[in-house]
Amino acid sequence: MSSNYTVAAIDCGTNSIRLLIASAGPDGRLVEQARDLELVRLGQGVDATGSFHPDALERTFSACRTFAKTISDHHCDQVRFVSTSAARDVSNRDDFFTGVRDALDVDAEIIDGTEEASLSFAGAMSGVQVTDEPVLVIDCGGGSTELVLGYGTTIDSQASLEVGSVRLRERFLHDDPPTAEQIDDARKYVREALGSCPVDVAAARTVIAVAGTVTSLSAIDQGLAEYDRVKVHHSVLAASQIFDLADKLLSSTVDEVEQMGPLKRRRAEVLCGGALIIDEVFRRVTAGELVVSETDILDGIALAMLAQES
């Protein structure tokens, strides 16, 4: 494979759509050329209606058109568009496929929870020093949460749970701020999902969390006025900090959450749901802290593409 071989990876989730353009360095690690994110809330109303809202589709296609120009400017050799939880069960996903194809000239792939978990694990592990101790990777998205337990770079067990920040907000946490009863109902729902999860989260000696919920929690905890990927990557949240942040977010209005850190409105609207999920997972973890990673499923997608061409 030429050292100039460049790939474009697109991760389209329930709340955000993201682009990474990268090539492989001499050591096999990613050499990032461009990275972009748009909060499009593709999963708007999907949990209740089972279909994509026209406005959500248009926001997503608009982001795709922006990404298409970036991809063209970087002369990418290969493009892969991966969609996760929001697109799995909708009734009008043909509209989604057509819009993506028109905007990017590439077919959208809808991957299952198993592949999503595997790619998240690979991406997270690419940014840390690998040890033989059991590592748990948590990927809390808008529609689902992936839990992956591995030893070194080998996956031992994995699960994709139908709990996510957008899903909880729309199904349970209706008020602003949510009521105590709504929070209790949401916690019960998450606990039931975790109770039947085959991943032994208590076995982990290291816990790594990826995606927008946990990076936002880190930014708030650090008091960042502007988002800084360098400061967020490999930052650490103790269990007590996670619990305190979740309580704070669940008792705050969206306007108040938006002022807590460098948060876009669509992130602030659902952050309390994501924090609740991280909180509940960590109540089952024996490790005392969580490592925040900026490398995630997007990096996993790019690495997989480059590996196929090597």
Automatic annotation (TrEMBL):
Question: According to its UniProt record, what is one Pfam family this protein matches?
Answer: Ppx-GppA
| Gene3D superfamilies according to UniProt | 3.30.420.40, Exopolyphosphatase. Domain 2 (3.30.420.150)
Q: Which SUPFAM superfamilies match?
A: Actin-like ATPase domain (SSF53067)
Q: Which residues form the Ppx/GppA phosphatase N-terminal domain?
A: 35-307
Entries under InterPro entries matching the protein: ATPase_NBD, GppA/Ppx_hydrolase, Ppx_GppA_N
PANTHER family to which the protein is assigned, alphabetical: EXOPOLYPHOSPHATASE, EXOPOLYPHOSPHATASE 2
Q: Under what name is this protein listed?
A: Ppx/GppA phosphatase family protein
Q: Write down the species.
A: Cutibacterium modestum HL044PA1
Its taxonomic path starts at: Bacteria, Bacillati, Actinomycetota, Actinomycetes, Propionibacteriales
